[in-house]
């Protein structure tokens, strides 16, 4: 008998148990083991060279390489990572903190959630709604290609793991869609993740709906896993979605009912978040079933 001991501790793995094989098959097994070890080494090498760029303690600067106007007051900003194989290193569910200067030149810090995942190599993207009197909005509004944005992270209390809930109900308003979109992408783009998603997304006008094309595409590709219901307070003529604000009856109709294995996530303006908490409590969703970004 020939005993073989496989050790990949140099790659950061635990040693594998030895194999006992009949001596007559030793050459074939030896070759197979060699290929296994080489293949593992190569895979680990390519994983390790995907540099993770975030630092939770200090700000690092990233160069703006593309700016796409989505509406009159909203744009998508693409920032380059150090190398084409770099990943941002942001766990799904968490966000980053961005630093800029307001109109008076005073430093301002605000949280944002990228809409990209670590499967997007070499860059990350932020969708930013720029308000007329917003202090950080001023900074983004005046950013030009080639400018640098300081960011720090990961930050946040919510970190997603596949299977942590049977289903998510999502209540989003305005730019509060970005953390939801990040999670939606992570779930739907993972073939092994069977989590169901029910999104209610509220805005003022049709033009205010962010990432609508992407979400409609997801709804078409994954009809059994993802459903979206749009609500507008100023709908256009012929609108067949929700009208007004997100009400208790809408949540009952479009979100999973209270259960130990569901979670309801909410993200929007403070007034909306407060109203949603009242609705959810009245419908019987416990505090353990709710999370506010």
TrEMBL record:
Residues 57-161 form the FAD-binding FR-type domain. It is found in: Mitochondrion outer membrane. GO terms for molecular function: cytochrome-b5 reductase activity, acting on NADH. GO terms for biological process: electron transport chain. It comes from the Eukaryota. Its EC number is 1.6.2.2. The chain crosses the membrane at residues 25-49. It is an enzyme of class 1 (oxidoreductase). Belongs to the flavoprotein pyridine nucleotide cytochrome reductase family. This is cytochrome-b5 reductase. It comes from Punica granatum.
């Amino acid at each position: 008998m020939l005993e073989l001991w496989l050790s990949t501790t140099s790659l950061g793995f635990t040693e594998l148990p030895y194999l006992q094989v009949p001596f007559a098959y030793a050459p074939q097994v030896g070759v197979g083991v060699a290929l296994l070890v080489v293949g593992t080494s190569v895979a680990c090498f390519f994983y390790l060279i995907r540099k993770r760029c975030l630092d939770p303690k200090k700000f690092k600067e990233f160069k703006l390489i593309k700016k796409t106007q989505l509406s009159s007051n909203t744009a998508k900003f693409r920032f380059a990572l150090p190398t084409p194989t770099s990943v941002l290193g942001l766990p799904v569910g968490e966000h980053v903190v961005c630093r800029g200067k307001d109109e008076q030149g005073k430093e301002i810090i605000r949280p944002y959630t990228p809409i990209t995942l670590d499967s997007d190599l070499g860059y990350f993207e932020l969708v930013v709604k720029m308000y007329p009197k917003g202090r950080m909005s001023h900074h983004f509004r005046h950013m030009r290609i080639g400018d640098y944005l300081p960011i720090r992270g990961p930050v946040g209390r919510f970190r997603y793991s596949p299977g942590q809930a049977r289903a998510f109900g999502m209540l989003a308003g305005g730019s509060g869609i970005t953390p939801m979109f990040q999670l939606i992408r992570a779930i739907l783009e993972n073939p092994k993740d069977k989590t169901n998603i029910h999104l209610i997304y509220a805005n003022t006008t049709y033009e205010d709906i962010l990432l609508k094309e992407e979400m409609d595409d997801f709804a078409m590709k994954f009809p059994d896993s993802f459903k979206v219901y749009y609500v507008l307070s100023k709908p256009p003529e012929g609108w067949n979605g929700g009208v007004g604000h997100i009400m208790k009856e809408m949540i009952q109709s479009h979100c999973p009912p209270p259960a130990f294995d569901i979670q309801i996530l909410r993200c929007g303006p403070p007034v909306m978040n407060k109203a949603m908490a009242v609705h959810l409590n009245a419908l019987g969703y416990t505090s353990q079933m709710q999370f506010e970004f």
